[in-house]
Amino acid sequence: MVEAAVILVAGIGSRLRPITDTRPKALAPVGDETILGRAVRLLLDFGISRLVLATGYREDAVRAALAGLSAEVSFCPNPRYDTTQNSVSLALCREALAGSAFFKLDGDVVFDPELLTRIAAPSAELSAGVDSSRKLDAEAMKVVVEGTSIRRFGKSVPLSESHGESIGIERISASASTKLFDALDERIAAGVTNLYYEDVYSEMISRGELDAAAADVSGLRWTEVDTFEDLEAARRMFTLPSA
Fold it and tell me: 65, 164, 191, 230: most buried, per Cβ within 10 A?
């Protein structure tokens, strides 16, 4: 049973200025909700009772947006959000999450609720939402898959070897949670702060420390929002009555 979720909302989102002059891009509006507001609503509908926000840029705006929420909410700030990668932001959530099963969401992903059901289903220690139907480019976070097992994550994965794109939403089991935070802390203690959390997943998989499965989300609606073009695409995709 997954009762907790962490949402990574530390980044500036500079490509969405001036929207992000006073708020992180997770608070950009899509229809009558923000990206974050929609994600929180869907998580609560799924049964999540504990939310952890990995914050950085304009944490005050995130706190204000979630004020009065009925769920338990924790904030884990990364004071070096502008000079470190998201593995550091995730690592700083250890006290709030270690030993618990949880969803991990990038704060700029807009998605269908069915995604959570599919990602929660596999029994592997790590279950990652993977879309094999989209055309990939060099910047996509790609995965190498054998059967249903993920063997590697990485932007550097050759397109010819990639099974699809990791969408930025995973479920980590309670048994893997502490191991993951140990691995994150080990890399940071060594002075390595430029890794994506997926890079750490990959390192753990290669050492046999993590069992990872691809949860197929092909055909479901989702999009990552980095640019104004992405934001317009999200608004077109999720302002229909079925959204």
Answer: 164
CA 108, chain centre distance (Å): 8
User: What is the average per-residue pLDDT within 187-200?
Assistant: 95
Model pLDDT for residues 63-117, shown as the tens digit of each residue = 999 998 988 999 999 999 999 999 999 999 999 998 899 999 999 999 999 999 9
**CA within 13 Å, CB half, 217:** 30
Strand, helix or coil at 71?
coil
Q: Alpha-carbon distance 127 to 243, whole Å?
A: 24
How does residue 211 score in pLDDT terms, banded at 50, 70 and 90? very high
Read off the pTM.
Answer: 0.93
**Predicted pLDDT at 137:** 80
Q: Are 119 and 168 in contact (CB under 8 A)?
A: no
Cα–Cα nearest to 168, from 75, 76, 35, 77: 35
Q: What is the pLDDT of residue 242?
A: 44
- Alpha-carbon gap, residue 40 to 104, rounded angstroms: 12
